[in-house]
Amino acid sequence: MDKYDILIVGAGVAGMTAAVYGLRAKKSVAILEKAAVGGQILQTTKLDNYPGLPGISGVELAEKLRGQVKQFGGHFVSAEVVSIEKKEDADSKGSSFVVATDDEPIEAKSIIIANGSKERKLGLENEERLIGHGVSYCATCDGALFKDKDVLVYGGGNTAAYSVLYLAGICRKVYWMFRKPAPRAEKHLVETIEEKENVEIMKSSVVTHLEGQDKLERVDYHGEADESMSVSGIFVLIGREPDNERFKNLVELDETGHIVSDETCTTRTLGVFCAGDTRAKKLNQIVTATADGAVAASGAIEYLNKLNK
Ligand SMILES: Cc1cc2nc3c(=O)[nH]c(=O)nc-3n(C[C@H](O)[C@H](O)[C@H](O)COP(=O)(O)OP(=O)(O)OC[C@H]3O[C@@H](n4cnc5c(N)ncnc54)[C@H](O)[C@@H]3O)c2cc1C
Question: Which of 7, 115, 207, 233 is the most exposed place for a label (fewest CB within 10 A)?
Fold first, then answer.
């Protein structure tokens, strides 16, 4: 079984920053990533609030970070972490962790959980079956598949609003539907959307059913009455939630499922740290995720150095 000083769950900005710090302190580091290196930032076409790099795209930032991790000798492993077990280590003062994945298990002396968050689903019948066949959670990832088609964007926040604008440049018609009488998105975004000729705004409406055999054919919703529309795609953008059930025996979770840690990104389990959107904290942004990554790594480095004394 491979063994690393630091094993990081998730190659988002938090995980990759943690890796850079760990590697520069001469620790062996592996990052396990179940999907694409970069995480959520891959969905962002233009970042305007990351200090020093105005206008950089999420893909470009992810690529720069990936290069930095590789440059210092970091090891990316394409696998999903299924569970993490702590066991007392006979030949060291601390514990070691056995990380079970959907591939080979890996051993590590310390862990940084940086698994971000996952898209909130509608929880409707047929939703899972139609993912990739008309149901999507990411406009920038899948929008090109709906060129000149009619699509529905569901959700009233900024991510949904940005997605409406993005899709309006690709699709024939974009319906923007949200539950409340007014969207939560910033005013300037809403105003820009209102000027788009191929966007129709549908307030106070709730999606109730998705229909389609091999692909999405119809969306039922409740607005003023029970109604239906034919669209080729629905982009469900109703927020994100943590995915930490699998770690509940290792770390403490709060009532929303986020990992409880202190200012130093230390969890209740010695040797286990957390970083980024997975942590219970106020502001989920790139700048706070990268800061967490640095703090969590410095905690892991300190922990490892004490083990070796
Ligand atoms: C559309 C959109 C626009 C945004 N715009 C901005 C913006 O303009 N400015 C800003 O500052 N922030 C923005 N954000 C928020 C910002 O992107 C996030 O706060 C930040 O990227 C979180 O980084 P992270 O590393 O904590 O998590 P993530 O980016 O979610 O990365 C976690 C990684 O872990 C992987 N993973 C999860 N579970 C496992 C597992 N069990 N095993 C292995 N791998 C796993 C995931 O596949 C993912 O790659 C935006 C977010 C979205 C969705």
Answer: 207
Residue from 286, 287, 292, 295 whose mutation best tests the ligand 1 pocket (most atoms within 8 A of CB): 286
Averaged pLDDT in 10-residue chunks for the chain of 309 residues:
93 98 98 97 88 95 98 98 87 81 96 97 97 94 95 96 96 98 96 98 98 97 96 97 97 97 96 97 95 98 90
Instruction: Write out the two tokens for 122.
Output: 């509608």
272/257 Cα distance (integer angstroms): 17
Residue 197 makes CB contacts below 8 A (sequence gap 6+) with none
Output the CA 117–ligand 1 centroid distance in Å: 7
Q: Identify which of 33, 40, 44 to mutate to test ligand 1's pocket (most ligand atoms within 8 A of the CB).
A: 40
Classify the phi-psi angles of 217: left when phi > 0, otherwise alpha if psi is within -120 to 50, otherwise beta. alpha
Q: How much is the pTM? A: 0.89
Q: Give the domains, in start order, of the chain with CATH numbers.
A: 3-117+242-307 (3.50.50.60), 127-236 (3.50.50.60)
User: CB atoms < 10 A from the CB of 180, how many?
Assistant: 10
In terms of DSSP H, where are the helices of the chain? 13-24, 58-71, 127-130, 139-142, 158-168, 187-194, 286-307
How far apart CA 206 and CA 209 sit, in angstroms, is 9
Give the residues across from 101 on adjacent strands. Answer: 81
Contact present, 36 and 140 (Cβ < 8 Å): no
pLDDT on residue 74:
97
Edge-to-edge strand ranges of the sheet holding 199-202: 135-136, 233-236, 150-154, 173-177, 199-202
The residue nearest atom 31 of ligand 1, judged by CA position, is 12
Q: Which residues contact 201 (CB under 8 A, 6 or more apart)?
A: 176, 193, 194
**How far apart are alpha carbons 237 and 203 in whole angstroms?**
15
Half-sphere exposure of 110 (CA within 13 A, CB side): 31
